[in-house]
Amino acid sequence: MTAEFTGGDLTSNAGLLLLRKCDRRLGLARSVAGVVYDLRDPAELNRAPNN
Asked: For residues 23 and 30, what is the distance between their CA atoms, to the nearest angstrom?
């Protein structure tokens, strides 16, 4: 007996792709961002530029 698994077209982040699509349609992240406050001191944050 020989078994083989090639996997085909699989992705490990399929749930995230669906979540992103729903979020873009419903604006969930934007709504949450409007009520969540960042209490950190901006002077203490090290941010790298987004590339």
From this structure: 9
3-state secondary structure of 16: helix
Rounded to two decimals, the pTM is 0.44
> For the residues of 1-51, what is the DSSP string, one character each?
--------S--TTHHHHHHHHHHHHH-HHHHHHTT----S-GGG---PPP-
CA distances from 2 to 5, 45, 46, 48 (A): 10, 55, 54, 50
What residues have CB less than 8 Å from 48, skipping those under 6 apart? none
Q: What is the pLDDT of residue 24?
A: 92
